[in-house]
Amino acid sequence: MPSTDRVSMRLTVESRAPGCPFCDIVAGKAPAQVVHEWSNAVAIVPLNPVTSGHLLVIPRLHVADFTVWPYVSATVMQHAAELAAADGRPMNLITSKGQEATQTVRHLHLHLVPRAEGDGLALPWDG
User: What phi and psi, each to the nearest 5 degrees, are found at residue 80?
Assistant: First the structure.
């Protein structure tokens, strides 16, 4: 299991996965609309936002999903929570692990999805 100290969050060449679109964004090799940056994460507008204000918060370090490196997941969650609190609207925070759970990019990412009554955005469950 990787170290959980803050030094481990530094971006290195080894922390990127070839062909990962989020690693390419972090490395400046792919375009993205960046709305906030931290030393260890970045918030971007997704290619197809589902609501106005929809953001993705991704670590600069390549981590496949939220179970691989809990410290990184917690740090990214903290950043997402800060953005959601500053926004103030009702919000879904969504992340997935595995294709069966709708994860399409194998790089940890948290969706911040602002919601409004009657917005018509359906989730696959109630309650």
Answer: -65, -40
